[in-house]
Amino acid sequence: MIPVIKNPHRGRLLIKGGRVIDPRQNLDQVTNILIENGKVLSIGHHLDTPANTPTLDATNSVVAPGLVDVHVHLREPGGEAKETIATGTRAAAAGGVTSVVSMPNTNPPMDNVADIQFVISRAAQEGMVRVYPTGTISKGRLGQELSEIGAMASVGCVAITDDGSEVMNSQLFRRALEYTKTFNLIVMDHCEDVNLMGDGVMNDGALATRLGLAGIPRQAEYTMVARNIALAELTGGRLHLTHMSVKESVELIRQAKAKGLHVTADVTPHHLILTEEAVQEYKSNAKVNPPLRTMEDVTALRKGLKEGVLDCVASDHAPHTQSEKLQEFSNAPFGLIGLETMLPLIITELVKPGYLTLSEMILRMSDLPARLFNLPAGTLEPGSNADIVIFDPEAKQTFTHFVSRSQNSPFLGWQLNGVVERTLVGGQTVYERSAASAKPHPSPL
Ligand code: DOR
Description:
By secondary structure, the protein is of the alpha/beta class. It is built from 14 helices and 18 strands.
């Protein structure tokens, strides 16, 4: 089921002279793309287009399939002060993200058909990009009883997850992995032993002791990664492990893949770039779950991504209001926003220093996440949706304000390479840099 786009572009549009990168087609060359009625019609140097075809000049820019972010909190219903489907998808468009998989830890949690239908219809009315909802694994996210999994799948839910917390009941998790096989649904898991986590608020270690804060041991994550992989092996179910943060998890996933299990994983830009040092001075915008870890973990996560042990990058865009984040560190909620910074962060911190090529970046931020979640996205092959990001990988920008309704980012004030110039969904421009910079504080929708 493809989310409805309000105004798919009618007629033709030519995107001319950009560096077109599409890993699925093994394409990286300066060329032209012709769009017709919201789909890619053809790619090539000499396209047969009438002289009056509307044209976008993409000289010196990269033209790629729009990013696909499989971990986004849109907060509607119940958290509209933090974000809505309208504001969150505007932030996505500004970040070059054209498909988002939305998390179900809303208030109330999304555990039934009506909830999934609500997201789909609200996104069709107000969304700027395509929204693919997930439902919870357990009713009410309480970890006791399975949600209406089959019914939710039948109306467009693409995965189930109790994200924000772990399903500690192993028998329930096993049943979820078994049951979802019938519907070809993914079980996406937040790996964290809630008892080991206790009241921890940052990485466990010397820094936590020095700051007088309770720590979350690395074992809280990787013991659950190990359990979940064991249950995926037992059931043959389809498991996706989200926001991996420690080196041991990478090794466990490497072994699971070597055995041929249906296990995939994602990692966030913040876990690939920041360490626990970012919470020094009690900076609550760097308070996130799982917590930022150590340089050894950052190195292992980068290597895991490069080698494909970690399949893709996902933002875990988790908006919270300023007043919530201004509370004392221990009481502030976990989470940071990431839709608008994911592309420039990966360009600046991983592409520029040579960890990834631009093509590998598009593979891990568009092509693969689309394939893992069976979404019609991630490529510019003729006939595919004209969901496109046009960006300048060299240009610099300093983030002083975000389109998102929330501003809780540890990257505020960072100067980064990589500027999204235009985002198209179904051939329709949903974000344009020049228009945005003329209005730095867009009015709420
Ligand atoms: O930091 C986080 N924030 N981690 C999660 O798993 C949930 C998220 C949220 O919903 O705020």
